[in-house]
Amino acid sequence: MAAISLSNPEGVHAPQAAYSHAALVEGPGRRLVISAQAGVMPDGRISAQGNAQIDQAFQNLEAVLRANGMEPANVVKLTAFLTDRMLVTPWRRRRDSFLAGHAAAATLVLVSGFADPRFVVEIEAEAVAA
Question: What number is the average pLDDT over the span 25-33?
Answer without folding.
Answer: 90
